[in-house]
Amino acid sequence: MLRLMCITAHPDDEAGGFGGTLRLYHDRGVETCVICLTPGQAASHRGNAANDQELADMRRKEFAAACEILKISSGIVLDYPDGQLYRQDLYKVVCELTLQIRRFRPHVLITFGPDGSVTGHIDHSMASVFATLAFHWAGRTNRYPDQLAGGVSPHRTQKLYYGTVDFNLPDRQPVTLPPATAIIDIGNNLETKVAAFKAHTTQAPLWPLFESHVRQRGGREMFHLVARITPGLIEQETDLFAGVKENT
Fold first, then answer.
1. Distance CA 211, CA 215 (A)
2. pTM of the entire structure?
3. Cα separation of 41 and 11, whole Å?
């Protein structure tokens, strides 16, 4: 079975940034995994949460509900502090993500770009840095060799993509986004993506802005190919698994 991993920063990122693609590939028989680095406890929109811990608990439940809608095979929320990823020990965070990659053994990895995606969120940028290093290091025997026991072995993910879009949000700091090298037609999964985002009920104030942008741009999600194990020129793609060998 082909496997797709997505590494994000907050609950709702999986739906807002990647939801259509995740559900599309599930429907094609691909096993999917989402790793969310924080439970989103520092969010501006807090529902009726009385404190950060209560909000974190609520957002974990919302994430689980969204993963059910997107048919995510494995959804994992780690416990790094929301809004503080830039303060974390890079080597330790990458260690944890490297182990997740070595265990799940994805063929393709998707995440944010270091630009921070359309919002420019610093946690998105740091998630990109951590995920990119883990993508490269998971395949090397001289990175975290203590992990290589009990059936865990190095794993080279075949392709790495950053999510991208063709617009900027008004009244925000400037974001320079990577050009799209893959455009995925998510078709009817646009409605599924919207439903998954709305599973994050604490974030209801964001629903109108989110929905207006995704509906204006139709049923597609865009990606930038960052790295792949086979050398060659970049070509425009309509399938993230183009050229992927299933038996590795």
1. 6
2. 0.97
3. 10
